Amino acid sequence: MISAGPFPLMALLALLALAVGWFFARALTPVAEGMRSRAGAVVLDAFLLGLLGARLAHVGLHAGDYLAQPLSIIRLGDGGFSIWAGLLVAAAYALWKTRQRILRKPVLLGLSAAAALWVVGGMALFALQRSSIPLPDAVLVDMQGQPAPLAAFAGKPAVINLWASWCGPCRREMPVLAQAQQAHPQVQFVFANQGETHDEVAAYLSAEKMQLGNVLLDADSRVMQQTGARALPTTLFFGADGRLHDVHMGELSRATLEARLRAMQ
């Protein structure tokens, strides 16, 4: 998984794009009292408002999913943004704030540089991620003690959830994944427990009355090693061709999970 420590690189790329846009806007603004500071402030405000607009637009488009878990609307780390809505909001705000035309050109050029870096960089990272993470070939163990190669799940869309019973976010998202497994029989859900014993996993499933299919034991955390996952929970979305379509690090909401499932089918 492409990340820097616990931080997905897309988030770091967004911050880098903001820094580039801020620098460009200031550098291109004529030297005058307070003008460069104002240009930088407009870029920063446009970025934040664009982020808010992108989130609200995404929530509006998937309102039915979010109504089931209203608090997930404010969990920005869960993902879910409408890129084009965010760009439109940022551009509209920048045009409104730069009615004094001496600022308009540098601000718009700065925002354009930031958007270009974020879009092109994101496409490059996604292409690298897809090419670097095939469906893992690890052989795990099922709850009956039998070998369970992950290669057996090739040929159909597969969602591999890396989890552990001691992990709070894993426990919170598990009911969402369990419901999705029942609602999407055309998708193979695999729950690859990382580093725990059979008794620990069985005790958790029993205590939570969790009915899950394809619960597998990965005592040596081989899947985490093969995929480069940095934290739990991590959910990997593979297409029928065995190629990675998406990765989510952290707790999944129903809305984000449903959006990812629609995108991969």
From TrEMBL:
One of its GO terms (biological process) is cytochrome complex assembly. It comes from the Bacteria. The lineage of its organism: Bacteria, Pseudomonadati, Pseudomonadota, Gammaproteobacteria, Lysobacterales. The keyword Transmembrane applies. It comes from Stenotrophomonas terrae. It is found in: Cell envelope. One of its GO terms (molecular function) is disulfide oxidoreductase activity. Its main location: other. CDD domains: TlpA_like_family. PANTHER family: THIOL:DISULFIDE INTERCHANGE PROTEIN DSBE. One of its GO terms (cellular component) is plasma membrane. InterPro entries: Lgt, Redoxin, Thioredoxin-like_sf, Thioredoxin_CS, Thioredoxin_domain, Thioredoxin_ResA/DsbE_sf. Residues 129-265 form the Thioredoxin domain. This is Thioredoxin domain-containing protein. Pfam families: LGT (PF01790), Redoxin (PF08534). The chain crosses the membrane at residues 6-28, 40-61, 73-96, 108-128.
